[in-house]
Amino acid sequence: MRRLTPAILALALVSVTAASRIDQSGSSLQGSYRRAPRDGWTYVHLQGTPAAIGYQHGWLLYREIKDGFDAQKLELRHDAQKDWEFFRSAARTVLWPHVPDEYREELTGITAGLNARGVRLDIWDVVALNAAMEWSYYVQKYDRDHGIRPPSTVKAPDHCSAFVATGSWTRDGKVVVAHNNWSSYMDGERWTIIFDVTPARGRHFVMDGYPGFIHSGDDFAISDAGLVITETTISGFEGWDSNGIPEFVRARKALQYAESIDDFSRIMREGNNGGYANGWLVADIRTNEIASLELGLKNVELRRTRDGWFAGANFPVNRKLLREETTFNPDDPSLSANARRVRWDQLIGRSKGKIDVTLAKKFLADHYDPVANKIRPGEHTLCGHVDLSPRGMGDWKVPYQPAGSVQNTVTDAGMAAQMSFLAAAGHACGISFKSAPFLRAHPEFAWQTGFLGDMNAHKWTRIP
Fold first, then answer.
1. Strands 42-48 and 193-199
2. Backbone phi and psi for residue 149, each to the nearest 5 degrees, phi listed first
3. Which of 23, 165, 333, 402 is 20 to 30 A removed from 100 (C-alpha atoms)?
């Protein structure tokens, strides 16, 4: 890990000072607002300069950010077996030197908004929070470089199921995109913020997200360039470059500035640090083209079509990437990613010419287990219920883990043109998770007490 040099410290102090000078009389909040929660979602509108957007974010969501920060801090410390100062230090010395000024200003603006509300987090807490999805990649390399065996709980996450389709595969011949976020329920129940952002530079965009993040993180987003962007992680991925640009910066920049699929691919590749390695699914509603960008650290592949579909469920597609950069076993049918890949092939394969948002919602609520060949909610199903999975099966190391699909999003070309989508908080199938009986039955998760709450299933609602 690099030492904090005077130059880095000076840059940080300049950014913090700039944020502290934001006019707190109310002008920095002009045009921003939050709506009362609806169907489990909290909608906020942010606009203006990077510092103003950040300040509005911290001010409007200060309770949610502090709560979400405490949950992520607990989870990271438990899984990585590192104290919080480890992540703050890495945020300062490894990530901050590669964060552009625009996003430094926004991050320090968030800090200023929080501080103005009495929340005592500093810039390094906020940067470390934004990198929450990347730390497992960093910790794996750090531990190995220092002769430490990484804990079994530190691995590339198995997050999300998604598809994108167009042409003869959809009912109207235009784009349809769907995604559900798989996560631990402890942080997933908090992944219910809708950000509507109009920056002074770049494109207006809408995204779901976690409180305090400048990127979506799970990722589902629409920009007024006509792009719809989502992803699923690459299981078993191992790779990190400390000289690269953080993934949370590249993902936000690509959403804000990309004008095309080629632009999106270019921005995501530039300075790739390997963090949060994903198979990105992108649709351009202006050209009716869709693409899959499988972004490893060493191996990158962009596939695209105007008549077809791509799906993701954490399985590596590129065989070279799989061999060189992952520990994933594509021949083990019990692994969740392999089972869900089979199910995507079954569902989409028999739906040519029929796919629309109604069918997409049904896909995300699907409980068919292709390993057991029956309806059985669990980790093998697209509507993921790891808390209901049979003991000793699959790739989640602890059976009955409180994890799975935590929220769902769907859009088509018509809605995306209006910066709109459908969303369902909780499981799309309608099953609600109740924490008290789970914790009584599984005392090994007592460490989550006070943070693991109920995750109720809400109806589908149109955003905004």
1. parallel
2. -80, 120
3. 23
